[in-house]
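To close the chapter, one final illustration. This time we ask the reader to focus less on the individual chains and more on the assembly as a whole: which components sit near each other, and how the overall shape emerges from the parts.
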Amino acid sequence: MRVLITGGYGFIGSFVAERFYQEGCEVSILDDLSTGNPDHIDFKHHKYILSIEDPNCEELFRNGRFEVVVHLAAQVSVAASVEDPGLDTRTNVLGLTQMLNLSRKYGVRKFIMASSAAVYGMNERFPLTEQEACEPVSPYGISKWVGERYCRKWQELYGLETLCLRFSNVYGPRQQSSGEGGVVSVFLENAMSGKPLPVYGDGTQFRDFIYVRDVADAIFRAASSTLTGIYNLSTGQASSVNDLISCLERLHGPLTVQRKEKRQGDIEKSLLDNRAIRRDLDWAPRYELAEGLALTYEWTAQRQAAADREEAAEEKKKRPPSRFRQWLHKCLPYAENLGLFAITVYLSGAFADSSYEFLDFKLFYILILGMVHGNRQAITAVILSSALFTWEQLNNGRELISLMYDTEYFFQIAIYLFIGLVVGYTVERKLALISSLKSQLLDGAEKYEFLHGVYQETRRVKEELQQQILNNGDSFGKIYAVTKNLESLEPEKILASTVSVVESILKSDSVTIYTVNKYGSYLRLAARSNGEPFDAPKSLKVEEYPFIQEMLTNKQLYVNKRLQPGTPLLAAPVQSGGQVLAVIALHRMPFENFTLYYQNLFKVTVELVSSALSRALSYVEATASQRYLEDTLILKPEVFKEILDSKRLARDRHGVEYALLTPVDSRPGHDFAELSRVISRSLRETDYIGLSPDGKLLLLLSNSTREEADFVARRLSQSGVEMAFVNEELPYVG
Ligand code: NAD
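The assembled structure is written out below.
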């Protein structure tokens, strides 16, 4: 099952998603993360971070082909709904109507909406059944109540199965302490952090607490059921706030309670009757309050412990390093610098009078410092090296004054300075470049992850489309294969089989085929579906039906967009050589089939059928001399037998009646030519006169009941030809 869960990263949504996933369903989640958290879900699913009001949701429905939508996304805070009713209405009403609309547009089978006990408002006829009056007191309650009306309307208008579940107070792991039903999570959080539990009033007020897994279970069952309408989803058990505190004390130990004044507008009591959903869904809550609370307590304790650990680590990270560490951090490069300088002094002294005298260790010292620490230490190294060089010069007996005029001395100092600056500057630039590359790399990794996600999603959609095309019952190849069944040259057989072909391709049980007379003034019913009865006149006078006139003139598909009664919903002409020979029509179809796709499918089918029909008709024309007795309208026995066989087939398959008559005075050798001329004056184009193998004249009235045949017989009797009905068990027909 493909299911879309709106608000799937929220408290209830995450459990619902998990339940569907565990049952092997393909789960998609639509959530704007306003209160949800994607970390709640750790299994494979399709993730759409979008608001339910966003027009881009259409893309999601177009590609997702969801069977079920579980609509949980909502503005869930009663207080926020009072403060900002606009936001509440946008999310809970406009968001909902967009989800409903897209669901019916893209063929969703079932839409389940999370409603709330808030719709009952202050109604205190406990336990409240679904039939009780709804008197919501908050904008939140009103928007949920309005949402229920919308769901009902969409079911009435479009046949979308909708189910609204009025949740009582849901509790369990992952619940935030704000929003509806938050009393359990507020109490647990306060208990864990040693704060008093706030109780408004004397604590005797009661609620109907239901564990979140019971809610998820009911939603999952409902998705596969045919249940529609409005149901309470609750335990049907009242638990007071004092009961809740006692339960918590059994888990946690003694708790302190802070009594507060009753809050204005609070719905103090709530208890929903759950007998209807128990009966109709075969569902019952499995978690007692004590058990559900113990599980929630355990989860909250674990989360608290994890949060404490994280906070401690964060704290440690945030804590400024001690003064000593700060001082050490600052001084370390200088210490390193001094250490290396000491080594340089030593090496310069040690190699002063040796064959390595030419080596200038001060240059190495500047180079190393510049390369490791950048500019600042390089300049320090330059200063120290210059001092050491000056000291060496003085030590070698040079006067300070003479050094001031020595260009070589200054040249050496300039070299130190140059090396220090160049190396220090270059390294600093390199370090800056490395850090910018590092951040680019991080960005790139994020981009890669995002694009990889998009790529995977695109591949999935592509594969699905491929599968769809391969398996599609409507693919051109399949339609062609079905219409190949029309490889017959007998128009009668083709008419009968065409009904089956059109029924099977368009999945319809209300197909008719009308043949057009040669003047284009009348249409006669030649074949029809035999399923549920539907209204299809036996003959249609073209001038009385503008849609037929239009179709015969334009030779185009007709779509009954205004749903005019007594007119087919779709009709298309069957043409040959620019002339309309017949009309194929569909009289009933589900509303969702009013699509361009379905119209095209109908058109293609009719076009394929047209070629078979026209071939058969040209054959009839070309072989007229082989079909009729010379100079008569009487069909030869073998031709007549074939037509009769196909009429029998049409009657058995599609319930199209026919009648078989014979002139009372019909002996072989009689002047059949004259007789047939008299008879043919009273006949329609779709009736036949033929011979039986033993030479008797037979009259076949297509698409006629016994009464209609009686009427024809009476007319012929007035023309002097007495007719009798033929026993169907004639030996030659078998
Ligand atoms: P929640 O806040 O945990 O979940 C709501 C989810 O919807 C969140 O993930 C949020 O990010 C998402 N969301 C909100 N606005 C959205 C928008 N415009 N577009 C897309 N996503 C959006 O709340 P919850 O308690 O899990 O409630 C779930 C549903 O159940 C809600 O419809 C709520 O009204 C209903 N409900 C809850 C309780 C209860 O006791 N928790 C009782 C009655 C009814």
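The radius of gyration is 45 Å. Residues 407-471 form the longest helix (65 residues). With these observations in hand, you are ready for the problems at the end of the chapter.
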